């Protein structure tokens, strides 16, 4: 059941572990996450380390339960449990014993400024050293190339790290961007890592993008979680997609055109977030109509 809260409280501290320069990792659902790549990366992280609840949030104030309804468990006609959607902050450690505060749950429906202010208090309270968030978006990228990472960062030094793609554009913001901006105002390094997912695969799992996010986490914040199972899943997915494409020479030709265009754009560092085109639509329809 949801925890009782004082009317003015957005969060309450559940436990205060001893932490050394923790990073705050934000992986919340509800915003751009093509192929659920960020959520899959989060699942790998939470499966690699025991977690301790650090803070829970006033979900009745933050979430619209008509849009995010609790799940009722029915056993042989008897209602036995309600599983409520919850936002929570947990502590875990990476493979090298580094401290990570993981903020997960649905993106708040209400009170974004109050929520972000509460996270800012937690950042100060626990001495957070860096803020990192995960996301993924559909891009004009072929599955035959390693997934690229784009970044939204608090400084040019972070944004222009080798291997990151950058662009200048106006886009709607998620709650992680609000938190990142607040961290930047405190002089704290903050960065959003965004994996590119081939736009013809955006509706199905794409473990290669999840593995890229974990690799980006290590490159950026030196936080390591084993991504071997994601690499194996990515190899299996690649073989399956290749087998589907081999059945149709027309789609092989379209893939070759996409590869050529992608390679040229990467070489020129010209990155765009497309709305989709005829090639993507035909490709996506082909893959989704497969029986398996």
Q: Can you offer a commentary on this structure?
A:
This protein starts with 10 loop residues before the first strand and ends with a helix. It has one domain (11-288): PAC-like subunit (Rossmann fold, 3-Layer(aba) Sandwich). Helix 3 packs across helix 5 (175-185). Helix content is 38%, strand content 23%. It is globular and about 60 Å long. The protein is an alpha/beta fold. It has 9 helices and 11 strands. Residues 270-276 have low confidence and may be disordered. The protein has helices at 37-48, 59-62, 112-125, 156-159, 175-185, 207-221, 228-246, 249-268, 278-288, and strands at residues 11-13, 23-29, 52-57, 71-75, 78-83, 88-93, 99-106, 130-139, 149-153, 164-165, 190-198. The relative contact order is 0.16. It has a 9-stranded mixed beta sheet, sandwiched between helices. The protein has a two-stranded antiparallel ribbon with strand order 4-5. Strand 6 (88-93) and strand 7 form a beta hairpin.
Specify the CATH architecture: 3-Layer(aba) Sandwich
Low-confidence stretches: 270-276
Shape: globular
Count of helical stretches: 9
CATH topology: Rossmann fold
* Element-level helix/strand string: EEHEHEEEEHEEHEHEHHHH
Reading off the top of the CATH hierarchy, the class is best stated as Alpha Beta
Question: Main sheet?
Answer: 9 strands, mixed
Rounded Rg = 20 Å
Number of domains: 1
Straight-line distance between termini:
39 Å
Extended strand count: 11
Lateral arrangement of strands in the main beta sheet: 1-3-6-7-2-8-11-9-10
CATH superfamily, by name, is PAC-like subunit
């Amino acid at each position: 059941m949801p925890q009782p809260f004082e009317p003015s409280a957005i969060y309450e501290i559940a436990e205060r572990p001893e932490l050394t320069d923790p990073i705050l990792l934000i992986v919340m659902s509800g915003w751009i996450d093509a192929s659920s790549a960020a959520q899959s990366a989060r699942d790998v992280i939470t499966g690699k380390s025991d977690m301790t609840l650090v803070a829970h949030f006033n979900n009745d104030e933050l979430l619209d339960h008509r849009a995010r309804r609790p799940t009722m468990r029915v056993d042989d006609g008897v209602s036995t449990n309600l599983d409520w959607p919850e936002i929570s902050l947990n502590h875990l450690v990476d493979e090298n014993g580094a401290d990570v505060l993981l903020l997960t749950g649905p993106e708040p429906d209400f009170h974004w400024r109050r929520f972000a202010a509460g996270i800012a208090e937690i950042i100060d309270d626990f001495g957070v050293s860096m803020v990192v968030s995960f996301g993924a978006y559909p891009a004009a990228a072929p599955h035959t190339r390693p997934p690229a990472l784009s970044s939204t960062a608090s400084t040019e030094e972070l944004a222009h790290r080798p291997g990151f793609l950058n662009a200048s554009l106006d886009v709607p913001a998620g709650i992680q961007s609000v938190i990142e901006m607040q961290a930047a105002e405190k002089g704290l390094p903050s960065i959003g890592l965004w994996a590119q997912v081939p736009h013809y695969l955006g509706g199905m799992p794409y473990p290669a993008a999840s593995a890229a996010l974990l690799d980006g986490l290590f490159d950026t914040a030196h936080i390591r979680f084993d991504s071997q199972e994601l690499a194996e899943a990515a190899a299996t997915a690649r073989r399956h997609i290749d087998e589907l494409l081999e059945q149709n020479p027309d789609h092989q030709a379209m893939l070759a055109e996409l590869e050529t265009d992608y390679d040229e754009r990467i070489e020129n560092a010209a990155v765009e977030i497309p709305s989709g085109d005829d090639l993507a639509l035909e490709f996506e329809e082909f893959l989704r109509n497969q029986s398996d």
